[in-house]
Protein 1
Amino acid sequence: MEFFTVLFVPLFIFPLPGVTAINYHDRIHVPAMFLFGDSLADAGNNDFIPNSTAKANFPPYGETFFHRPTGRFTNGRTAFDFIASILKLPFPPPYLKPRSDFSHGINFASGGSGILDSTGNDMNIIPLSLQIRQFVANYSSSLKQKGAGGVYSAKTHLSQSLYVISSGGNDIALNYLLNTSFQRTTSAQDFVKLLLSKYNEYLLSLYHTGARNFLVLDIPPVGCVPSSRLAGMKAWNGGCLETANKLVMAYNGGLRQLVVHLNKKLEGATILVTNSYDFVMKIIKHGKSYGFIETKSACCGAGPFNTAVNCGLEIPKDKRGEYKAFLCKRPGKYMFWDGTHPTEKVYKMVSRQIWHGNSSFISPFNLKTLILRRH
Ligand SMILES: *[C@@H]1O[C@H](CO)[C@@H](O)[C@H](O)[C@H]1NC(C)=O
Ligand SMILES: *[C@@H]1O[C@H](CO)[C@@H](O)[C@H](O)[C@H]1NC(C)=O
Ligand SMILES: *[C@@H]1O[C@H](CO)[C@@H](O)[C@H](O)[C@H]1NC(C)=O
Ligand SMILES: CC(=O)N[C@H]1CO[C@H](CO)[C@@H](O)[C@@H]1O
């Protein structure tokens, strides 16, 4: 019940074109930003799911920027918070957060979720399919119920807004690679095809609801996060988990093809797709030239790669002699905040690349170009 009400409200208060909210001297006008996906985008939805076990609701999460945990899986803002600021929008509030103002966007993302419904379902999170349905079902029905003027402004609002999706890493790292019977019944190639066919469906349902401007995130090298290095410490000396990275690369290649195809097929739509994989790999290899002193171990956590004991969790008694509770002094010098997520510093760099990066990071062009072309 609550879901419907909160989604319904903003449609009545959309600024009409030509009224106060639009500043014609400012060509960068995007009325709202809608976010979907996993912990790279979640800004606290999981905190409002009582039995979810994928939460970042304890210190020191958030300590660098917000100075308190917000449910974001990092020390500060996510890449999409930075994008919101560039677009002069507030950080899109979590869909499940009571009494939020959704007039400039909603964040539907849920940490631990994936493209497949089976991903993360033991953690009580919201799969991507449901995130999309929550948006589509309620926006479509409220559009139908509006009078002519209302439909017009709601349609404009939806078509000028930005839709961002970050998903897929968990399908590989937390689902397929951990489930041997899944691997037996479905080849890697078919698994990637399955992910992309679902992704195609989600993009189409957003399009049919009225979305036109999309930003789609490729999967970063999940095989190189501290927890993957820890998992393979003995077998390959703490290098990257290549089985994961190979799947990621296969998926990313397919995603780019899908985006090229949909950009031709979907009239009036533009889908931007990133290449965060190569960007993150470059930083891992040449950390110093990007201002990082550490690109392998987490800033927060303890034990090998600072991830054998998770960030912010209490250290078990029997491990106290072995591990020392550890939080790095300068998170801005670390690539990774915890065992699986980057620091705010990396997110800031990624957001800059999304905004004005060249074709080696984002295609067919960057977000700035998309927005200037539209207005
Ligand atoms: C978690 O809560 C939801 C409803 O809030 C319920 O449907 C689900 O069964 C619960 N899961 C577990 C494992 O308790
Ligand atoms: C593993 O994958 C199989 C086949 O897809 C599925 O039926 C099963 O539920 C999965 N197991 C777990 C623990 O997720
Ligand atoms: C793209 O930008 C990066 C720096 O962000 C630079 O290293 C690279 O040479 C540029 N590539 C092209 C094709 O301009
Ligand atoms: C798909 C979805 O989230 N639909 C929601 C829309 O609003 C109704 C009415 O409150 C909810 O019951 C649905 O769950």
Note: Residues 1-25 have pLDDT under 50 and may be disordered.
Protein 2
Amino acid sequence: MSSVKKNLEEIKGNIPSHVTLVAVSKTYPTEVVMEAYNAGQRVFGENKVQELCEKRDQMPDDVEWHLIGHLQTNKVKYIAPFVSMIHSIDSLKLLQEVNKYAHRYDRVINCLLQIHIAQEETKFGLSFEECTDLLKSEEFKALKNIRIVGLMSMASNTDDPNQIRKEFKSLKQFYDKQPSLYILSIGMSSDYKIAIEEGSTMIRVGSSIFGKRNYA
Ligand SMILES: *Cc1c(COP(=O)(O)O)cnc(C)c1O
């Protein structure tokens, strides 16, 4: 059995059935990603638009593609025809652009709002307050070709599990107060077990499935 298949089966055996596994295939060659496909995985996530489009061309049509990384407004048009979910919405302007192209392709695109919970300054995302304001705005309510179905976030890059748990807990509390959201996308290779304990319904796991990443 390939190690990708073995890793995948081990993770799937460890997560409850209400948690969706997004296999994060960024930087891995298509042959390796296809090992996961051949083992039954259908939901894949990429963090860059260009790589997402390339892999989509090379892989079977029944893959559900999720964009999990930062999205620039000028790149929305490339993914709007096919993307299943965008995890990284962090402004009304971006959401309006997604809505525009979704309308053009006669689709409704499922989106998550990215929330900033980590201590680092560098990570993208909205504060709880900005998120609330966006969801209450008339401009948002006017958008008919996008659907906000949940929240996505990343915990601090730290070895301290208590810090990670604290951040996930505060996000879960906020999430529970939002009507009609049903996806909480938290948890990566290093912290998905904590994320599931704290209420994750969607985990994004790359290196624990595909092995060490080579960015070169
Ligand atoms: C790369 C990435 C992941 C997966 O990270 P691993 O540590 O390889 O599991 C999850 N979410 C986002 C937004 C990513 O960019």
Note: The pocket of pyridoxal-5'-phosphate is lined by residues 24, 26, 47, 68-69, 188-190, 204-208 (CB under 6 Å).
